[in-house]
Design a protein that fits this description.
This protein is of the alpha/beta class. The protein has a single domain, classed as Aldolase class I (TIM Barrel, Alpha-Beta Barrel). The chain is built from 14 helices and 9 strands. The strands form 2 sheets. A 6-stranded parallel sheet has the order 2-3-4-5-6-7. It is globular, with a radius of gyration of 19 Å. The two termini are about 20 Å apart.
């Protein structure tokens, strides 16, 4: 594995997207499948050293598909008139948690668009209700950019983790994915603020978005390296016919798996999900992701009546199944891959 020190050195030197990457060992690695099996083996060795054979299941609750933003890649964008909008009530969210808790889940992920209806007061009430009824669970939020005061309020209410992906750490590329009112520096500042407050915080990006090349991917790796996140969420871009990127092809499953292994090697402590977008494009990729360093899976426990309306992208897997069936199938897949699904909050393990 002589090339591994070279990867670390390249990242440590913080090569930027404007640098000459043609002969970079990391660039060569990203563009070649030559080392995929070695990367996967090394990533698995590291994850077992830090996390043993444990895989953490998180109950995903997609509680609102309203969004004030108009990101070019996202099916929840406010301009999408083909989407039936919904919001779950606090009682419905708690009911989802009850279902998940009875299935052994000990983390609940509240994910939604940036929906102004859900004020800080409402979000804090939901967090407080979950923590009051289920004292041994963690609450993860994934609800976008907020002011520092809002993040502080969520943390004081009992939220444990917050995932806010940067989506691209290259300013030009970020601008190609988002409307002008969204700003990369603002996004980065939000992620850093979350860490400063004390959240287990994370970033991440889509693989294969329009206009993304190796330089953009390396910019993301550099940003993550400087951040040292607790969680990193990556998944392939999935083309959505209800967005301006409808004519672009979806991202590469193989490159996503390669990057998962690289991320595990670079960030031994990180919580790395095998994202739904990955196994939506290729169901067999779920086991491969686990064997290549991923240690988190998020079964969807959103009510079935609205689940199909959370259409970040088309064809999302498991939207028609009951939560119990989904969890049982995932436990079986995890076991078949040689790992254990555990009933645990699954906090980050710093080494």
């Amino acid at each position: 594995m002589e090339f591994l020190p070279e990867i670390l050195e390249v990242v440590k030197k913080e090569i930027t997207a404007s640098g000459n990457l043609k002969d970079s060992p990391l660039a060569v690695l990203l563009l070649s499948d030559k080392y995929d099996s070695l990367l996967s083996e090394e990533a698995d060795r590291i994850r077992r050293e830090v996390y043993s054979d444990e895989v953490y299941l998180r109950g995903l609750i997609e509680f609102t598909n309203y969004c004030k933003n108009d990101c070019y890649y996202c099916g929840l964008r406010k301009s999408n008139s083909n989407l039936t909008r919904y919001r779950l009530t606090e009682e419905e969210i708690i009911s989802c948690c009850k279902t998940g808790y009875e299935l052994g889940l000990r983390t609940f992920v509240l994910q939604g668009g940036e929906d102004p209806y859900f004020t800080d007061e409402k979000i804090c009430s939901i967090i407080g209700s979950i923590k009051e009824q289920y004292k041994d669970v963690a609450v993860t939020l994934s609800i976008g950019e907020k002011e520092k005061e809002s993040y502080l309020a969520y943390y004081k209410a009992g939220a444990d983790r917050y995932l806010l992906r940067e989506e691209s750490a290259n300013p030009l590329h970020y601008a190609q994915l988002h409307p002008k009112n969204l700003n990369l520096e603002r996004r980065k500042e939000c992620i850093k603020t979350l860490k400063e407050i004390g959240f287990q915080a994370g970033g991440g990006f889509m693989v294969g978005t329009p206009h993304q090349g190796v330089e953009e991917i390396i910019a993301d790796l550099n940003f993550l390296y400087s951040l040292s996140p607790d969680m990193i969420g990556i998944g392939p871009f999935v083309s959505n016919p209800d967005t301006p990127f409808a004519h672009f092809k979806s991202g590469s499953v193989e490159l996503t798996l390669r990057l998962l292994s690289i991320l595990r090697i670079l960030f031994p402590h990180a919580l790395l999900p095998a994202t739904t977008s990955l196994w939506t494009l290729e169901p067999s990729a779920l086991q491969r992701a686990l064997k290549g360093g991923a240690n988190v899976i998020m079964p969807n426990i959103t009510p079935k009546r609205v689940r199909n309306n959370y259409r970040l992208y088309p064809g999302k897997t498991n939207t028609e199944k009951e939560a119990a069936q989904t969890v049982a199938e995932l436990v079986s897949i995890i076991s078949a891959a040689g790992y254990r699904a555990v009933s645990s909050k699954g906090d980050v393990r710093r080494i």
